[in-house]
Automatic annotation (TrEMBL), chains A, B:
GO-annotated molecular function: magnesium ion transmembrane transporter activity; metal ion binding
Species: Grimontia marina
Predominant cellular place of this UniProt entry's protein: membrane
Chain ranges of the CBS domain: 146-209, 210-268
Membrane topology type: Multi-pass membrane protein
Described purpose of this protein according to its UniProt entry: Acts as a magnesium transporter.
A Gene Ontology cellular-component term: plasma membrane
Residue stretches in coiled coil: none
Protein name in the entry: Magnesium transporter MgtE
Subcellular location: Cell membrane; Membrane
Record-linked PANTHER family: MAGNESIUM TRANSPORTER MGTE
Alphabetical UniProt keywords: CBS domain, Cell membrane, Magnesium, Membrane, Metal-binding, Transmembrane, Transmembrane helix, Transport
Transmembrane segments: 293-312, 318-345, 366-387, 393-419, 431-454
Family under the similarity heading: Belongs to the SLC41A transporter family.
Amino acid sequence: MAENYEVEQPSQTHQTLQEVSRALENGMFVHVRRMLEDMEPEDIAHLLEASPPKSRLVLWQLTDPEEQGEILEELSEDIKDGIMVRMQPEQLAAATEGMDTDDLAYLLRSLPENVSQDVLSQMDAQDRARVEQALAYPEETAGGMMNTDVVTIRSDVTVDVVLRYLRMKGELPEATDALYVVDENSRLIGELPITVLLTSQPDTEVLEVMEDVDDAIPVDMSDSDVASLFERRNWVSAPVVDEEHQLVGRITIDDVVDIIREDAEHSMMSMAGLDDEEDTFAPVLKSARSRSIWLGANVLAALAAASVSNLFENTLDQMAAIAVLMTIVPSMGGVAGNQTVALVIRGLAVGHIGDSNTRWLLNKEALVGLLNGVLWACIIGGVVVLWKGNLMLGGIIAAAMLTNLVVAGVAGVTVPILLKKMKVDPALAGGMALTTITDMVGLSVFLGLATLFLV
Amino acid sequence: MAENYEVEQPSQTHQTLQEVSRALENGMFVHVRRMLEDMEPEDIAHLLEASPPKSRLVLWQLTDPEEQGEILEELSEDIKDGIMVRMQPEQLAAATEGMDTDDLAYLLRSLPENVSQDVLSQMDAQDRARVEQALAYPEETAGGMMNTDVVTIRSDVTVDVVLRYLRMKGELPEATDALYVVDENSRLIGELPITVLLTSQPDTEVLEVMEDVDDAIPVDMSDSDVASLFERRNWVSAPVVDEEHQLVGRITIDDVVDIIREDAEHSMMSMAGLDDEEDTFAPVLKSARSRSIWLGANVLAALAAASVSNLFENTLDQMAAIAVLMTIVPSMGGVAGNQTVALVIRGLAVGHIGDSNTRWLLNKEALVGLLNGVLWACIIGGVVVLWKGNLMLGGIIAAAMLTNLVVAGVAGVTVPILLKKMKVDPALAGGMALTTITDMVGLSVFLGLATLFLV
């Protein structure tokens, strides 16, 4: 047993991957199939995600059809869609047999309507009814995330009866950490954690040991709110109820973990102008298309900055040193502003920033901008005086730097908050809006002062 | 019961927060204390994080000392440290009573050595021994994350004996989803999921129903690797073993969730040049200092770009239109390159990118750069011809754009990968290194071609 406890280290994936790619290149499909048989579905999913598109399809053909459903579950949206559109409805129905209803509903949502109908028609009546029920809830809500296979008990039975009931059932849903106590109208009145069930005397009534559920999840709560509740409360699973407080399902932590990661990655990817589901190994044309939208937005920003410079063409014509130095102030403003933007975006995402503290934050960031503005105005001003031997030019760049860093701090707080109020994703639009502001302010102040005092 | 199921929506925090700030301003401390009494420790922690520093200290004084340990656990590093340094060792010892060993060890690590010794000396001998054992493992490893209170059983007893043993114990550690089966040398030989325990017949032997543990976590595994294992395997808890495969502890999902979020946030915050633990409401001086380091790095980058322009001072002197347009190409290169950098950083973080697919990715991103380069070269070239009425200038900016976007794609892949090989955090240094490259290449090509063909 002792030699059996090695885990798959991240670097091992790449050893496997290299072995697999070599084997694929040499057409050793039997060898690859044998390797795949030894791997867990989630590791095969990881291998698929780390493979270029061509190898992905070959690898997929070599996986065990029995495991394909579990592998699909673990793949990210883009890659999953790419594989599923090539499968026949019978294959899909076979692959998805025995999957949790929430996961299955999630898969079916990403299929074209007629294909998902085909898959549903291949399922047995009871499973179909369950999946159709899950599909009735919007995707990004508690209803769309939840699983409907919950174990419910009544409050007037004894622990011993519950234990015998469970033994009769023979199997419990995955990650079951509590049984739910409901009344005759299916309304949730309490929960019995399994750890309590195990440590209670057999003749105790459920009513005596069950715990209150103060915060069952409403079925229409958004998935991000569900995730932050789980995170704050350290839950493993939680019951979901409808408006009548009737128990309709259960959400487990494994589905929440995916949302926590997605939400956190979303900010980073959006700030760079990428879709968070963007596949690292997507085909060239697809990537080029999705990225060019963002570049298009930046063309407008860059042209806006150029047209500011254009206003000062005469000044630039008379003194080339100004042109040489004019990129410094916008660059510093952009970096300082984006620090504030990143901080505010995270603060908004985790719910730390709201009406009650916006003003405080605005003052703080303006002051941070002022302090750093003074520091870097002195340093850059000094460098310019030494470099170009022009005291006035040093003073001008210093003044522009100071102004721009204060503007960057103020805009860094207000821009994301305003965008959020306008229902625009601050992570997506915040950075570019900020950079456009700091570019234009930086250029106008620097070139404007230069025009006033130097030419 | 039905009116009792409302959950704390994120926006409610800010209503509470506004009510609390108003009450604090008006000196209604009793009212605030009563509000805090009704709140869960994790919600109080959230309230503290969303408050400016001054209110934080007042609020802390008003919290129930019995709950302070749990509140501390939920706070982020910076804020927790700020509060703990003001507490007396007796207060700390009282606040931390009854805390899980892993959480307590985590708290003690952030205290100065002499204070944590003081706190330890206030604890009873058994607890102290446990915490000291936990402190012996490095912080960012499985050993540092794990909890030592695990329930172990032998394989030769029956399910009924196990059930009676658990009832005798009377309480199980939080989030217990499996009991661990060990041999006479404490070596882990299997696990008995609680769901299996509940559904097995009383006279069954543990040996017959226990499951293999293929991938117990080695005690020295890094916390990020532990998090990605949990995420991939959908675990709720997992056993930790030492080199002899002896069971030493257990890691639960709630500790892992924090690391998953931290790891995901790390990339976003680092890319903007922020520490991921940076407190949104940190004091001005502290924030200004931590951000000025990054601005300092950018000053060097901006001066490097200016010194490239400086090489072409003669050209700029002769044609101001060139100065007006010279910021466009670097700006587009920076945006395109940062898209690639963000994609590669995420790919490296989740383990999708390695030696086996770097070359493929490099080709792909170069091609994406080429395609978008052609597109935006045509557009910008056309705009410039129409705007400035100079065909050659349009051709020059188009050529520079094309070159710079291809360079951006290539550098976007190679820079983060090289940084990682050099053990520098690609999320921290990648974006700025990339921008420096695209600024310098963009300016040199544009100004160089302009010098050759226009002056």
